[in-house]
Specification:
Order of helices and strands: HHHHHHHHHHHH
Radius of gyration: 19 Å
Distance between the termini: 26 Å
Shape: globular
Helix content: over 70%
Largest sheet: none
Number of helices: 12
Number of strands: 0
Structural class: mainly alpha
Length: 257
Amino acid sequence: LLFSTLFCAIVAEWMHISINEWTLPIGYLAAMCIISALHIRNRRSIDIRLLGKLFASVLLIVALSLLLGGYAYDYAYDGMSYHQPIIRSLMYGWNPIYESHCPFTAEWPCSSYVDHYPKAIETLCAAFATFAGNIEYGKAVNLLLIISSFCFAKSFIETHLAERYSKSSKTLLALFLTLSPLTLSQVFTFYVDFTLYAYLLIGFSCLYLHTAHKSSGSHPQTISSHELFFIITMLVSLSIGTKVIAAFWVIMLFLVA
């Protein structure tokens, strides 16, 4: 969902269409199309009931993330200095592809950060915030990224540990891996430092699940080669647009592996 929404927002900006209330719904539909295509490729058939449950689950998670994100205010220095001005400017129609300098923050002390800072996460936050009507709802992006990393970590643990531990123990271990101190401190802010940890956790889990797929064959929680390629594409794209250091470590992870 995050990658498809970002992709739709960038394509729209190339077409001189600013982020608006339709960016997130279109991104959701694009994500569901991708999931359906992968589902059909893997199963060679369509399970309408399974896809319906998946689509409904994603909607529910997005709704809960919006509610939680919207009821917490970001008072962090970096968030108020340049992350929020970037998001607000994108919400008000700024198109950084064609406007190098943001007209809304020309006199702002951190205007250079607004103009030149990578804007992948801020673009996503703007899409969510524009859809929900308040900038604070943009923090739903953080929650969705954390939930995604938890799901991948849980799949890795359940595949790696097999029957050695109980289901509750595996869930607790996945939570422990996901909720790092940095993640907990930044989840309700517009800081983006924790995203590096989330990207690396997802990437490592995917690499292991792909290795398990090659050794044990088709398994519900393993990842095939074309799924791994798609996930790598998403992670690299998101990390490049998030922070230079994040892109470096994500690319290094996949190169070393």
